[in-house]
Design brief:
Blueprint: E1 2-9, E2 15-20, H1 36-39, E3 42-47, E4 53-61, H2 65-82, H3 97-109, H4 116-126, H5 134-140
Antiparallel strand pairs: 1-2, 1-4, 3-4
């Protein structure tokens, strides 16, 4: 649905239509790399009944949320199956303590974040063919007090 639509035909006056429901066949003429979703102005060319080219401009385009959900559902389902699985612990031989200790020295030198998740992710990226447990990373990290940190006074 567009709140205002301007139809321009070759050799004819422009025609302004209010509250125009965009016909389904017109969507075949839309350039999908256009950014009309961001600014709400949709422009395309089509043939009229007399086989003349007309340019159609829709202003303030609004989409019915139920229709969008219905149209997008098959694509969302396909995207869900293509989504990358979450990174799991690497399978393979366990990393040697010497390699892990050398990695941790390197990690400290590059000012790596001294928290479990970022350190574990970094170690798994550095050793993709080895198994690294979270416990091994916890053992290397400095001890942290339990619970939330105390509030700072400003």
């Amino acid at each position: 649905m567009s709140f205002k639509t301007l139809v321009s035909r070759e050799g004819a006056d422009d025609h302004l239509i209010e509250f125009y429901k965009i016909p389904p066949e017109d969507w075949d003429h839309v350039r999908w790399n256009d950014s009309f979703f961001g600014h709400g102005i949709l422009t395309y060319r089509r043939w009229d009944r007399a086989r003349r080219i007309e340019e159609v401009r829709h202003f303030n385009v609004k989409f019915n949320p139920e229709h969008v959900k219905r149209v997008a559902a098959p694509y969302q389902a396909a995207q869900a199956t293509l989504a990358a699985p979450p990174m799991e612990e690497n399978k393979g031989p366990a990393i040697s303590p010497a390699h892990l200790k050398a990695w941790f020295e390197f990690y400290k030198k590059i000012d790596g974040e001294m928290r479990e998740d970022p350190a574990w992710d970094h170690a798994r990226m550095c050793f993709p063919k080895n198994s690294i447990t979270r416990q091994k990373i916890r053992d290397l990290l400095p001890d942290r007090p339990m619970g939330r940190p105390p509030k700072r006074e400003t």
